[in-house]
Amino acid sequence: MHLYQQHIVLTGATGGLGVALAHALQAKGAVLCLVGRDPQKLHALQQTLNEKGGQAHYVVVDLSQPLMAPQLVKQAVAAMGKVDMVINNAGVMDFTAFEQQTDDAIAQMIHTNVTA
User: Fold this and answer.
1) Taking a C-beta distance cutoff of 8 angstroms, is the pair 109, 92 a contact?
2) What is the three-class DSSP state of 72?
3) Res. 105: pLDDT tops 90
4) Which residue has the higher pLDDT, 103 or 44?
5) 60 pLDDT higher than 90
6) 3-class DSSP assignment, residue 85
7) Could you tell me whether strands 85-88 and 55-60 are parallel, antiparallel, or unpaired per DSSP bridges?
């Protein structure tokens, strides 16, 4: 797949898989919009990628919150000018037994992992 100068939104960018994806995409010449909840981690990753010759921007957003996806798109377009692709790597997990999970926790997990 040709990724050079493709404008890619990468959600969950600061997790283990997200960081690895960001480096791999940067190595292919993609322009990245890194997305996550932790501004310090996003900024550090952005700096690392840009120091390696990449073009990375970041947006701080919590996709577990309702109506954040449209805001993310607006901010990504503002940062990069356009969006060619979205890699939805954001996700949450709850390591408790299903019967012990609250309705709110299940709804948040479904919203983040599926809906957003």
Assistant:
1) yes
2) helix
3) no
4) 44
5) yes
6) strand
7) unpaired
Residue 116, pLDDT above cutoff 70: no
Query: Which residue pairs from 81-85 have beta carbons closer than 8 angstroms and sit at least 24 positions apart in sequence?
Result: 81/7, 82/7, 83/7, 83/8, 83/9, 83/33, 84/6, 84/7, 84/8, 85/6, 85/7, 85/8, 85/9
Measured over the CA atoms of residue 9, residue 73, residue 115 and residue 108, the dihedral's sign is positive
Residue of 87, 70, 66 lying closest to 78 (CA atoms): 70
Q: In which band, very low, low, confident or very high, does the pLDDT at 114 lie, cut at 50, 70 and 90?
A: confident
User: DSSP assignment, residue 98?
Assistant: G
Q: Could you give the CA distance from residue 42 to residue 47 in angstroms, rounded to a whole number?
A: 9
